[in-house]
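Example record for the data management plan.
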Amino acid sequence: MTPLTISFLHNQIEHAKKCINLYEEWDKKWLPGRHTQKIQEYKNRLNNLKNEHKKNCATSKK
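Corresponding structural encoding:
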């Protein structure tokens, strides 16, 4: 992978983490369970991104 691709993948991982956190905080504050499906989708996406990072990047500590 090129450094640019690795950087993009890293940014996607961080974005997914941020989205999960924001949805969880919103649910905690306003309406528990409102974004359960969306949170699970982002968690699945995060796991897929981490697997791709682990498979394609030499030093993966995510």
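Summary line stored alongside the record: The helical segments are 3-29, 36-56.
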